[in-house]
Amino acid sequence: MDQNRTSGRLYSQQRRKLFMKLTANITLDELTKSQIAERKGINNNPSPEQIENLKALAVNILQPIRSHFDKPLIISSGFRCAQLCIEIGSSINSQHVADDEAAAADFEIPSVDNRELAKWIRANLEVDQGILEFYKDGEPSSGWIHCSYSRNSNRQQWLRAQRVDGKVQYTPWIGE
Ligand SMILES: [Zn+2]
Fold it and tell me: How far is the CA of 97 from the centre of ligand 1 (A)?
């Protein structure tokens, strides 16, 4: 067997797998692509179990948002393999790693106020953890939303992350 042809075929099979649709509007590619992984040559491909966790996130959170607002979601970061976490200084215990039956993504909808979007999710969907990240009052497009979903049980925990004196502070987010 020609080694190059074999590995070429494996590569295209992997890519095809990534373009797999998880729901009507969300692909696995959107949840795994990373410019840093690409630049550093890190293989950010999830295992079958991690794909199941990402799919549960897409089915239960991302697609319902997409369907309700009827606008594309911009996913800035979904799955991060451990090596990618280390590279970007993210915790390897982050739910972005998509282990332990859970997965997380950071996203926004360009024309929707991030706080209004987070409030809609909080009122309508089950999440393990939601974070309104670095939103500045009076700047609708500032920051983004982090949401995780667990196939096991969901805590419905909502936090707001803000930078205070150069440090990231997480506080419970229950009101506005
Ligand atoms: Zn995140």
Answer: 10
90: CATH = 3.30.1380.10
Name residues with Cβ closer than 5 Å to ligand 1, which is an ion.
106, 146
Q: How confident is the model at residue 86 (pLDDT cuts 50, 70, 90)?
A: very high
CA dihedral 25, 30, 31, 36 (to 10 degrees): -170
Q: Which residues contact 72 (CB under 8 A, 6 or more apart)?
A: 25, 66, 109
Range of the domain at 137: 3-172
What's the structural domain count of the chain?
1
Query: 17 CA distance to ligand 1 centroid (A)?
Result: 23
Q: Mean per-residue pLDDT for 73-101?
A: 95
The model's pTM is: 0.89
Kindly give the distance from the C-alpha atom of residue 24 to the centroid of ligand 1, in angstroms, as a whole number.
23
